[in-house]
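Study this one:
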Amino acid sequence: MPRIALVTCRPGPEVAVDRDLPVLVEALRAAGAEADAVAWDDAAVDWGGHDLAVLRSTWDYSWRAAEFLAWARRCAEATRLANPAEVVRWNADKRYLGDLAGAGVPVVATRYIAPGDSAELPDGIEYVVKPTSGAGARFAARYTPEDHDTAVRQLARMHAEGFTAMVQPYLANIDVSGERALQFYGGRLLHASRKGAVLTRGTPYDERKVAHPGLEPWTPTPAELAVAERALAAVPRADELLYARVDLVDGEDGLPRVMELELVEPNLFLSLHPGSVPAVVEAILAAAG
């Protein structure tokens, strides 16, 4: 009977509820596994007592990144961690988009502003500012050139807290075609979803956003699937991935671009795709074996 830890975080005011977690625990137990949901920072957990630790909803990691990455290394030394600690470290900082671009993957154009850099912001276009370590649109905002002073204040706040900022053009096609999330599990496409634009004009960067507005099932196009597969092929230790989510938006030319690659703790949206639960359970059990 495999012993599996589904790794989550403690509840908190800024932490969403993982509705997939109890569903997966129950399904794994029904399949014969000894499965439990455990918080990553619970000092009482013996990670070596598990055959597999699956990162599920560690949704507080982005503002505790150093602590979380140190834990991931320790956990990977004690048992098998999915995804691997090296992949987690690489994916926890969105500067990985530069690596993907260097590998020829079409991504949203991105510029980085680290603490101490001059706050040079775009002129004449609408743009987005967000941290390189973040989730759920935390500390993200959409600006017009007229909002320059507000954007500078956001940069100052982020830099004071140690965050590097990333600046991207706001791709207007997201207001039309939305953002598509292609989920992979066990090396295969699991399902896909589409949601509306998260960032609206005038919403403060430190205001909590609705992370997945208008979420609905989606059938990916051949072009979307091709871009997603190119992105995954460029990941370090790609053959060891248990799961992945590739978030795509359309560029000005109408072709898909990678907005984010979620390899740490992606929301699986199983409540929207309940038929995917058996495939997830099968892949987890295979990884634990």
